[in-house]
Amino acid sequence: MNGTFFIVMGPTGSGKSTLMKHVIAQFPDVLVPPSFTTRDRRPSEIENSHYTFVDKNTFTAMVEKGEFLEWAEFSGNFYGTLKETVIVPLAEGKVLFTEMEVQGVRQARALLPAEQVKVVFIDAGPWEELEARIRARAPITDEEIAKRKQRYEDEMTYKDEADIVISNHSGEIETAKETFANLIRDAIHAS
Predict the structure, then answer these.
(1) Which residues contact 81 (CB under 8 A, 6 or more apart)?
(2) Strands 95-99 and 164-167, how do they pair?
(3) Closest by alpha carbon to 191, among 96, 56, 113?
(4) Are 149 and 36 in contact (CB under 8 A)?
(5) 41-77 burial, b for 16+ CB within 10 Å, e for fewer?
(6) Contact in structure between 47 and 35 (CB atoms under 8 Å)
(7) Using the 8-state DSSP alphabet, how is residue 157 labeled?
């Protein structure tokens, strides 16, 4: 009995969160392993829902013990996924998905059986289109935009390595939702 682990990746503003929320609402049995993070909790976040908040010393100790399937640093904070929250459900034939950065995807692919990992890249088009989406969401500094553009360029280099590419250019969100939901539905039926 083999499960499937979908790793969702793509540049900021590509619609990853929107697509993931859509799938969670349609398929409540699909697991989303929580991420450990050292960033501050936002007022709307609840402990143990999507994030487990720890200090940097605790996180570093967990890295040294080899507890993470993948981990990365972004904007001065650490983020990681515990091995046990993925490996155990996969062995039980479950379908899981989470969002990761390029560094995390490479780490996870190195540790998990290739036939159980599917990397889904969300392609939202050229930088100019994404920059407009990012600026429309909330005020952002030019320095932060420059950092996000650099990340965009790095993430786009992984597009050709992804197993599945979902187009989510402006005006394509409904088609993207349907495509992603179909991937999850097919995996559930196959498990």
Answers:
(1) 33, 35, 36, 68, 69, 70, 71, 98, 100, 104, 108
(2) unpaired
(3) 96
(4) no
(5) eeeeeeeeeebebbeeeebeebeeeebbbbbbeeeee
(6) no
(7) T
Which amino acid is residue 77, in one-letter code? N
**CATH entry 3.40.50.300 includes domain 4-190:** yes
Q: How far apart are CA 101 and CA 106, in angstroms?
A: 9
The pTM is what? 0.87
CB 124 within 8 A of CB 133: yes
CA–CA dist 77, 27 (Å, integer): 31
* Angle, CA 128 vertex, CA 125 and CA 131 arms, to 5°: 100
Kindly report, residue by residue over 121-163, the tens digit of the pLDDT. 999 889 998 888 888 888 889 998 998 898 889 889 889 999 9
* Domain definitions of the chain by residue range: 4-190
